[in-house]
Amino acid sequence: MIRLGMFLGDRYEILEKVGSGGMAEVFKGKDHKLNRFVAVKVLKDEFVEDKNFVRKFKEEAQAAAGLAHPNIVNVYDVGDEQNVKYIVMELVEGITLKTYIEKKGRLTVKEATSIAIQMGAGLELAHNNQIVHRDIKPQNIIISREGKVKVTDFGIAKSVSSNTNTSDAMGSVHYTSPEQARGGYSDAKSDIYSLGIVMYEMVTGRVPFDGETTVVVAVKHLQEDIVSPRVYASDIPVSLEHIILKCTEKSPDRRYASVAELTADLKQSLVTPDVNFVKEILPDGAKTVAITKDDISKIKQETGRIPLGRNSRQAYPENFGEDDEDIFDEDYDDEDYDDDDYDNEDYEDDDYDNEDYEDDEDDDDGILDPKLEKIMTIGGIAAAVIIVIIIFFIIGKIFIFGKTGRKPKEDNEPQIEDVLDGEEEEPEVPNLLGKSYSEAKEALNTLGLGIRLGETRASSDYEPGQIIEQSIEAGTKVEANTTIIVDICGDGEEIIVPNVIGQTRERAVKTLEDMGFTVDVAEAYDENEAAGNVISTTPSAESKGTRGSVVRLVVSKGKEKKEEEVSVPDIKGRTEAEAKSMLTNAGLKSGTARSSYSDTVEEGRIISQSINSGTKVPKDTAVSYEVSKGKEVKEVYIGNAEKKGSSESAVTAYLTGLGLQVSREEQYSDSVPKGNVISYSPGNGSLVSPGSTVKVVVSLGPEPVKTATVPGAGSDLNEITARGFVVGSRTYEYSDAIAQGKIISCSPSGIQNVGTTINVVLSNGPCAHSNVDASGKCTTCGKTGLTPPIVNPPADPQPTTPDPSTTPDGT
Asked: What number does CATH give the domain 94-271?
């Protein structure tokens, strides 16, 4: 049992649980030997004793261990300790693509394309290593915090050289290919289909096929046409639409031949998004496949003879279904690191209790091989389709071109030959009877036909090693690449196959033929065996074979000459000249250079490159890159600011809201109230650069008067400043008529310009004597009740702007 704090392999410390799936749990751990954090995937306790799950767990480690790529979660180690079976993997801090889609609703076209390209890069490496993932879905794609896309969970991956029949395992049904849904052969094109469904979900926010049960969804993959993604997202460019539709074709032959082709089209879609450059693959006619007795025998051995009926599940033999029951397994766990699909609960027996699918009572006791029944059904449908096509073609020729099969010729029109006349002539099957296997192979290959061994059996009409029967009669015209199955004569005597491994081709062939075997030779590269020497034999050495039967030799072609690989340099941030120089020095070529705006990368420097730095690629590979055009400068449109209000504050708020600067001036205006905007420049309808300055002119109201009348006797000093004048010198006189502190006279007087300095004579009261004491008694004349003279006169009042509403005399 796994527990926090324990060590595995004396180096991996279990720190915390980060995820859980159908058959395994994922923990964050620390590798104390290399001092780094890792992800430790541990098989659940309930599956440790189940050989089937242990096998799948080991297959995941084996499938991913040899795949080192920036877009694949790397496997570091695998172990079995204290009944704990674990895989040590790269720890990726991030979220699954499924979670990312759910958070954003749907992704932008550029974002989805970028993710698909990175997924394709990882899958291309897997496919080049003969590994088919078979469970591509958003839950198995992790996006790191740095934006790196990584493919994970090779839990049901298989080598295409091994048994890749999807009855062994099938990925999540929403993303599974039609061939996987029907339990047929799956290859790299199955992953391309699933990747197409993932792209569909990224750009639309939904999967194309959904239903209440996984069976319903699987049937839709088989029968229903996919709805164009542009129905749900009209902004998807036409190129990406056709790329997705080509990936999700029902027939594998109509999909992309490889992930490399798909990736190339995705990159092209970024350059020319509105151009449909996707090449449609027209389907060929269905090819007839002959089933030999060996094939039938193998089918019987693999499936047994299975009675069909209402209780057919109970009638299965005990050894049936270790893998077959996993066909529609699905687990919808959205944990970041583990989404294994080995939970069988989704497919209870109730899913198949539909009366529409029950067999008739008359057939309850019948015995029929299910795989043979499937082959017969598909063959019957294909034959019916071909017959219908032929009938329509014949009818068309009769009614359109006439009974001669050619369109009637007009006087001024050259005769057009039947379209079939220009087609390549179909090869004619030669007579192979009496020939050796190698002679027949050479004859058929010359015609573009293939050969396959059927049975080895006795015949009184032929010598051992000669062909006694062929699957297609001599003289029959067939399509190119058709495979002819042949039976070989053998006298029934069993002899031991000699060990010829390591011998030269000529010596091995002579040894086998001298013993009575027929020899078929194939070639393959081998790192250890010299060219021309035998690598292996089928049947293997020391096993028994019938005299006259075929022994296949695999002869070494020597070491495969691999293209020299170089590491891609990091050209991001470099100038274009520097980037080209670095690529040339690394043995690479400069590919397409695109330009785009960037807020972070200086103009003229590289933003990104088509192949990540550090990636090993063949010499002379072209590396494309993106060059920065600097920050994108967009012009700002100035609309009618006064719609927002004509006050200075309203206009200023509008302009600053557009990202513009504001400068202000003031002017008198007879028509615009004080504080409102008279004008702004550039004005309404102008286009300016972001951050530009707009000059705003603010009204001061009507311009004030220029002249006023100087106040007369009896006024005070404030009256002078109120009319816009400046108080000048002051003198004091006694006056019986003018009160103390009031103006006796002004100089100049009358109408004067505003701002003129006015000298004043102020009243010191009615007493003519200046010697008045504090009690009001004049010490000179003895008069009492007098006011003392003013010793400290008041400060001058400040002049003010006269009210423009008054008359020139200040009234």
From this structure: 1.10.510.10
